[in-house]
Amino acid sequence: MKNLLIPFDFSDVSMNALDYAVKFAARCEKASISLLYISKTKLEKDKENELKNKFEALLQKHEKPNAPVINYNFGVGNFSDAIIDAHSSLDIDLVLMGTSGAEKEAESPVTRTSKLVLEVDLPVLVIPVNYKLFRLEKILLALGEDVMHDTSTLNLLLDVSSRFKAEVDVLTVSRNPENAGYSEADEANERTLQYYLEMFYSHHSFAENEDILQGIDDYIKKHEVDLLSIMPKTHAKISTPSKGKLTMEVILKSEIPVLVLD
To answer: CDD domains annotated for this entry (predicted)?
Structure first.
């Protein structure tokens, strides 16, 4: 994992994502960070020059020994499409994006970040704006009750866990007490987890809670989890894709970074 992409607009949200990315990239040899400023229409020359000056000042601030290389690019048009284009043209391995979460009184609890995660079939690491700590010792993979639909996405989780020597716990939260426990799907997932995650896989826990998100949050706080990882079915190809309601809730409400394996 060498090339990271951050949608960037100089907001507190994107600045915080950059701070996290710099520390994250320190574990990735010869890593580079691409900042992508996206505008709906082509920028006027004066505005583009103004932004270039701001980018140059920002890059100079981050020029330190052994620091990752940071560059900037401009994208035009639809936000998600611009990221997809940059992902391809810049050979990006992982998109990092900050989020402010949903406002409590918002009529439609949708943010640009949560919308992006649902629209693009790409791995995304979401960083909450209020998350200032950088530590990556324990990762929680939240799994559903079905057999994993795309096990190849676990390669990224292995990459992250191995770089940081992080332990990976797995949690399945069931709304129905009758479904809680070990099933044939769980047994199949267990074999997959052991194969893909190797020595970094710790154990698989099961919990009962009518509110799945609350069940995940309870585990995170009890076990001091540093990173939550999810495998949404919004872009599933071998099973029926989901509408992504739970995925959106996780992105909007999580207080720790979320790695979306897509």
So the answer is: USP-like (cd00293)
CA angle 33, 35, 36 (to 5 degrees): 140
The CA–CA distances, whole Å, from 156 to 25, 32, 238 equal 14, 17, 20
Rounded to 5°, angle at Cα 21 from 170 and 223: 30
* 3-128 CATH fold: Rossmann fold (3.40.50)
The two most distant CA atoms of the chain are separated, in Å, by 64
pTM here is 0.91
As annotated, the residues of the chain forming the CATH 3.40.50.620 domain(s) are: 3-128, 138-260
Tens of pLDDT, residues 163-205 = 999 999 999 998 876 655 568 888 899 999 999 999 999 999 9
Find where tokens 């191995």 sit: 162
Q: What is the CA radius of gyration of the chain?
A: 19
Which CATH entry fits the domain spanning 138-260: 3.40.50.2300, 3.40.50.170, 3.50.50.60, 3.40.50.620?
A: 3.40.50.620
